[in-house]
C-alpha cells in the first residue's frame, strides 16, 4: 500500500488547519488556535487508488504551524514529503510575498517538482471570495492555483484536492515501477 506524506504550509492565519480538517473530514474547529509546530492527520480517500490496480492509498497530512519560530523544525517536517500544499489568504497582501519564501524552502530547496505543489488561495467566510485573477510573480505563477471558499463552494476544493492526491500517487507509483524495472533489468 502506498503512503504519501503531504505538507500543508503557509503564513499564519491562512486557514491551513480549517482546510486540513475539512479535507480529511476531521473535527471542525470554530475558534482560531495557532498550530504549534505540526499536527499530523492520517486518512484514506476511497477516490484515490494507485495505478488502476485498485490498491488503496494512505495519506499523512502534516498541518505545519505558520510561525517562522518553528523554522528549526522544518528540515524534519520536509523529510520524505511527497507533496506540498501552500495555503494563503489572498485578502492579506503580505501573504502573497510570504508564499515565495514557503515555495523556496519547501519546494525548490527540497528539489520537488512543481507538479508536486498546489497553491490554495483560501478565502475566509464573509470575505466575498473574489476569484479574480491573482497576479503572482514567477515562479509561483507556474503552479496550479485553486481558490477555496468553504462557505460558497466546499465541494470544488474537495474535488481539486482529490485530483492533486491522484497526481501525487501516480508519480509515486511511476517512480516505484521504474525502481522495480531497474532491479529486474
Notable traits:
about 25% strand; 6-stranded mixed sheet; about 180 residues; alpha/beta; 6 strands
In short:
The chain has 185 residues and is an alpha/beta fold. The chain has four helices and six strands; from the N terminus they run βαββαβαββα.
Secondary structural class: alpha/beta
List segments where confidence is low: pLDDT < 50 over at least 5 consecutive residues. Answer: none
Order of helices and strands: EHEEHEHEEH
Shape: globular
Describe what this molecule looks like in 3D:
Strands 2-3-1-4-5-6 form a six-stranded mixed beta sheet, with helices on both faces. The chain has 185 residues and is of the alpha/beta class. Strand 4 (83-88), helix 3 (93-108) and strand 5 form a beta-alpha-beta unit. It has helices at 16-23, 74-78, 93-108, 154-184, and strands at 2-9, 38-50, 55-64, 83-88, 117-122, 144-148.
Please give the structural blueprint.
Blueprint: E1 2-9, H1 16-23, E2 38-50, E3 55-64, H2 74-78, E4 83-88, H3 93-108, E5 117-122, E6 144-148, H4 154-184
Parallel strand pairs: 1-3, 1-4, 4-5, 5-6
Antiparallel strand pairs: 2-3
Amino acid at each position: 500500500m502506498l503512503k504519501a506524506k503531504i505538507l500543508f504550509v503557509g503564513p499564519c492565519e491562512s486557514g491551513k488547519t480549517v482546510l486540513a480538517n475539512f479535507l480529511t473530514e476531521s473535527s471542525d474547529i470554530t475558534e482560531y488556535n495557532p498550530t504549534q509546530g505540526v499536527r499530523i492527520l492520517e486518512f484514506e480517500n476511497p477516490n484515490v487508488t494507485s495505478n488502476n490496480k485498485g490498491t488503496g492509498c494512505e495519506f499523512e497530512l502534516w498541518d505545519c504551524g505558520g510561525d517562522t519560530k518553528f523554522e528549526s523544525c522544518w528540515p524534519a517536517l520536509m523529510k520524505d514529503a511527497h507533496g506540498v500544499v501552500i495555503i494563503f489568504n489572498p485578502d492579506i497582501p503580505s501573504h502573497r510575498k510570504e508564499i515565495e519564501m514557503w515555495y523556496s524552502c519547501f519546494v525548490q530547496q527540497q528539489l520537488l517538482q512543481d507538479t508536486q505543489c498546489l497553491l490554495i488561495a483560501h478565502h475566509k467566510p464573509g470575505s466575498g471570495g473574489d476569484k479574480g485573477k491573482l497576479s503572482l510573480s514567477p515562479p509561483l505563477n507556474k503552479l496550479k492555483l485553486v481558490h477555496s471558499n468553504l462557505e460558497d463552494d466546499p465541494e470544488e476544493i474537495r474535488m481539486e484536492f482529490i485530483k492533486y492526491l491522484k497526481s501525487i500517487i501516480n508519480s509515486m507509483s511511476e517512480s516505484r515501477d521504474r525502481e522495480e524495472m531497474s532491479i529486474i533489468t
